[in-house]
Design a protein that fits this description.
- The strands form three sheets. A seven-stranded parallel sheet has the order 3-2-1-4-5-6-10, sandwiched between helices. A three-stranded mixed sheet has the order 7-9-11.
- Helix 1 crosses helix 7 and helix 3 runs parallel beside helix 4.
- It has 296 residues and is α/β, with parallel strands linked by helices.
- The protein contains twelve helices and twelve strands.
- Helix 2 links the parallel strand 2 and strand 3.
- The N and C termini lie far apart (39 Å).
Length: 296
């Protein structure tokens, strides 16, 4: 099938593009500038000019294809979370509207961090609050599933790791480099679920090909890696001490990132694995950190 992919040049999106091409699909990638278009061309992908903030360009890309994978999101931390979330909701509405009544697949990205903390969450769990970022996008996906779109959600964990990672784990490493301490909050028993980007890419392809209408899927290979273990791996990799911080100390040490460092977000993917036959195969987070390029 011909698949429209937003975020096609990103860390995860580029892996999804390669996964789709290897499986025999054709890809139309969203490109907001010449550099993105050139990057897509070098991967053998046709570019569709447009932007996340331009719903008409998104709808046109969706209408030109047999299915959509929506990966793009505004990850600019200088922009209010509410603005990024509303832009995403509008993007999902535009993509879903373009596919309405077609039965075509629409796979939308969300996150496990919007689920209730402190217990193992499953695919059956709804966001903890309707005001949580991306909760409105999930609601839009479920509404689209009732309007003739084979729409589903793939929730990704705080750590999607692998070569080229520029997300939360590199932020922790950079903070440890800058401060000379690899820190965690409290006793460090809080947990981050994790998945390798290549395993995540396989899940997105399976969701495109097989997922049921209205499905909520979890792209989680590890249910929960203790934050203290992550901090210890960083401390060893950089040769710096590890230290537990109080919540007040963490706000000073990590700034806005402190709430993510403290989150306890254990998450199951059992239903996803059983429904799609997804089996993560790549290295786990701590192994990838030790053996990969995180400290070079």
């Amino acid at each position: 099938m011909r698949v429209f992919v937003t975020g096609a040049t990103g860390f995860i999106g580029s892996a999804i593009v390669r996964e789709l091409l290897t499986a025999g699909h054709a890809v139309l990638g969203l490109a907001r500038n010449d550099a993105a278009a050139e990057s897509l061309a070098q991967s053998g992908v046709e570019a569709h000019r447009g932007e996340l903030s331009n719903p008409e360009s998104l709808a046109a890309g969706a209408q030109a294809c047999d299915g959509v994978i929506h990966m793009a999101f505004i990850h600019d931390w200088s922009i209010a979370r509410e603005v990024a979330a509303e832009t995403d909701r509008q993007a999902v509405e535009a993509l879903a509207g373009a596919l309405e009544g077609s039965g075509k697949p629409l796979v939308v990205t969300s996150g496990t961090a919007l689920l209730t903390p402190g217990r193992i969450s499953t695919e059956e769990d709804a966001p903890v609050s309707a005001d949580t970022p991306r909760a409105a996008s999930e609601a839009a996906v479920l509404a689209a599933a009732g309007r003739g779109v084979r729409a589903c959600v793939v929730r990704l964990p705080p750590s999607v790791h692998g070569t080229g990672d520029h997300g939360f784990v590199p932020m922790l490493i950079n903070t440890a480099r800058r401060t000379g301490v690899s820190a965690f909050v409290g006793d460090g028993a809080n947990r981050w679920p994790a998945v390798h980007r290549l395993d995540a890419a396989r899940l997105f392809r399976l969701a495109l090909e097989q997922a049921a209408r209205g499905a909520r899927l979890h792209g989680v290979a590890e249910e929960g890696v203790p934050m203290r273990a992550i901090a210890q791996t960083i401390g060893t990799g950089l040769g710096v001490p590890i230290r537990g911080l109080t919540e007040d100390e963490a706000r000073t040490h990590f700034d806005w990132f402190a709430r993510f460092v403290a989150i306890d977000n254990p998450t199951s993917s059992a239903l996803t694995r059983s429904s799609l036959g997804w089996r993560p195969q790549e290295p786990e987070l701590l192994t990838d950190m030790r053996d990969g390029v995180y400290f070079t």
